[in-house]
Every structure is written in C-alpha cells, then in structure tokens.
Amino acid sequence: MPGKVADFLRKLELDAAERAAIDQGEKVRRGQGYTLRITAVPAVHRALLDRCQPLNDTAAIPAQRKARREYANRINALPEAANVRP
Questions:
Q1: What is the pTM of this model?
Q2: Residue 59 phi, psi dihedral angles, 5° rounding
C-alpha cells in the first residue's frame, strides 16, 4: 500500500481488522516516500480501498490520486477467486 494511502486511512475510523492491518504493517522506504506492507485477506484490502475512495476526488492532490490508483491496480490484479467479495 502506498504511504499516501496509508496516511489517509490512519486518519479515518476503521473497524478492528482494518486498523490491525494498518498498525501491523511494515514501512519500506521508497524514494521520497514509503510503502506499507500489510498482510491481510483480500476482503480487508477491498474494504480499505473502498474507504480511500475520496482520494479519487478532484480535491485530493495528484500524488494521492495516483497512489490510490496504484493500490487499486494491485488489488484488482489479485487472482479472480480473491477478488470475490463475501
């Protein structure tokens, strides 16, 4: 998960599974920013992706929109069985 997305999500009220995934993530430095490596089931990733939907809005800065797009691409690239929502 890109750091800009993780920073945005940390400010939100998340449920227990989402908060645990964010809190237990491992920061990996990437150039000027960082990537947060989280281990969670695809359903949690989908829920986090849904929560960061406001980053698609024109009020978000371009870097946030790009970070959300990259995260969405990673989640959508998961095997088809993993993309099925419960």
A1: 0.81
A2: -75, -20
Separation of alpha carbons 38 and 27, rounded Å: 9
Q: Of 43, 39, 3, 34, which is closest to residue 20 (Cα–Cα)?
A: 39
Q: How far apart are CA 75 and CA 12, in angstroms?
A: 20
What is the per-residue pLDDT across 9-39, written as a single tens digit (0 to 9) for each?
999 999 999 999 999 999 999 888 899 999 8
Burial label for 77, CB within 10 Å (0-12, 13-18, 19+), is exposed
Query: Where along the chain do its domains lie?
Result: 3-83
Quote the DSSP letter at residue 55.
G
Dist. CA 54–CA 59, nearest whole Å:
8
The size of the chain, in residues, is 86
